[in-house]
Amino acid sequence: MPLLVPPAPAPALRSILNALGSPTALPGARTFGVRPSPPRVPAGPLTTELSLPVHTMDGVGSRRPGAARPVAPRTRLSGWRFQLRGPAGPPAAAAQAGLTPDGWAFSHFVEGPYVTATERAWRQVESLPALFQARLLSIPELYMLTLWLHRDTASDGLTGHPAPEDLLVPLAPAPPGIAAHRPYRVADLLPRLSDRLSPAPLLRTTA
């Protein structure tokens, strides 16, 4: 079943198109935890295609003093990402717009493995029988980016938190011990991520 994609805000798309029209615009910015590589701009114009809201999850594994269970992480909209394709071949890069006090504005270009991994994950999950809304979810504490399949298909993509029955597909490279390009239920994956980030308990010793 096809995935649903929330419509990108018109000012966000316009900021990307303006950046692509700039003579100094070259894709070569950092991705999450990956060093920038030399720009590889294909001959011919770049066009925008798949556009997805980017949400950032903070506080994974955080605990209140004395609490036995982790505090629920916080999720916020952090940008809107557009895949960029040249005249031929796979996506060449991505471009992201960010929400500022004055509205949507071009933020940065992205190269690296997450560009091709996004398209690969998209193709993998298109055959899922359930209907989902597609988003990207970044977990900076783990240098992790996932394709987030949200069950609230009527959402505008600007708000919301991962529901237990939503699916997360970690993009490659994924953190050690987490399989990339495998769909996980949020209820199954978040506890594993929380345990990975939670500090180990102190062992008491007796004199």
Descriptive overview:
17% of the residues lie in helices and 30% in strands. By secondary structure, the chain is of the alpha+beta class. The protein has an eight-stranded mixed sheet. The longest helix has 13 residues. About 7% of the residues have low confidence.
Write the topology of this structure:
Blueprint: H1 10-20, E1 47-58, E2 74-85, E3 91-100, E4 103-110, H2 113-125, E5 133-139, E6 144-150, E7 167-170, E8 184-185, H3 186-197
Parallel strand pairs: 1-5
Antiparallel strand pairs: 1-2, 2-3, 3-4, 5-6, 6-7, 7-8
Describe the structure concisely.
Helix content is 17%, strand content 30%. The protein has 207 residues and is of the alpha+beta class. The chain has one domain (10-33, 45-62, 73-197).
Low-confidence stretches: 26-39
Shape: globular
How many DSSP E strands? 8
Give, in order, the helices and strands: HEEEEHEEEEH
Number of domains: 1
Helix content: 10-25%
The Cα radius of gyration reads 18 Å
What is the mean pLDDT? 83
Which range does the strand content fall in? 25-35%
How many helix segments?
3
The major pleated sheet works out as: 8 strands, mixed
* Class per helix and strand makeup: alpha+beta
